Input
Amino acid sequence: MHPLPHGAGRYAPSPSGPLHLGNLRTALIAWALATQSQRNFVIRVEDLDRVRPGAAATQLADLAALGITWNPPVMYQTERTDAYAAALAELRERNLVYECYCSRKEIQAASRAPHGAPGAYPGTCRNLDATQRATRRAALAAQGRRPALRLRAQVSSWTIWETICGVPAKAAGREFRGTVDDIVLRRGDGVIAYNLAVVIDDAAQQVDQVTRGDDLLTSAPRQSYLAALLNLPTPSYAHVPLVVNAAGARLAKRDGAVTLAELRACGWHLSDVISWCATSLGLPSVRTAAAFAECCTVAALRTAGGPHIFNAPAP
Ligand code: GLU
Output
């Protein structure tokens, strides 16, 4: 690996429990794409919410057991409060932030309206005047709640470089264009929103290649736009297929043995795990992370299809 500073790939798990096979496969792919392109590889623990004590340590140990290596230090989002506050202050200064008083229910109902992009925030609180804001703030306070903060987006869509899911563009790259709405920057409970944290942290870790599950594809234009607003470099993206259960839902504990520890208890070796990750993507049955990194190319990932079903053995 190269000493920083240098572009980096990354894996950014949420420590809500042990990684399952789908998470492990995504981490292997991210590591493969970073090392193939002579990038560093960094880890970020996204521990702003949904934290299970001890989960981060188990996740890191599982990644290391598979043979994934990374440049220290591991970043923990709970240690990044000052950086988030500074970015938020800058956006506020530029009048790019407003308070949002909507409940989750109101947003869901409004974003299903016939106009506007599905799931996008329709801007209900964007243009309230001072009196309306004061009334709504007081109503929220009476319920013991505080407003969220949203970005006053200046565009409604944004184009990203997307290596896997994008369509071939003029230059060598591939593009994906997606909706940008007024994303939450700070939640009503005071926690910095994932979409803001991820942008600040990727830049701080010199990440210029974001590889992650394709459930986050539609978040990428929002994040890339926010990076551009903050004058941060915008990474290129590689959104990769998910691993699901036989019913097509994301893997969970009730599906059987899905974590490294559970699979090992069922007699799987680490090499079996890597082999499953490779063959599920249509790659040769390699049995080490290094061999996986040699064959898991962008070209192979483009033809891998997905999502891919894992029939978990009974624990
Ligand atoms: N922490 C997120 C997750 O585990 C991933 C975020 C990202 O890769 O941008 O789902």
Notes: The pocket of glutamic acid is lined by residues 12-14, 46, 198, 212, 216 (CB under 6 Å).
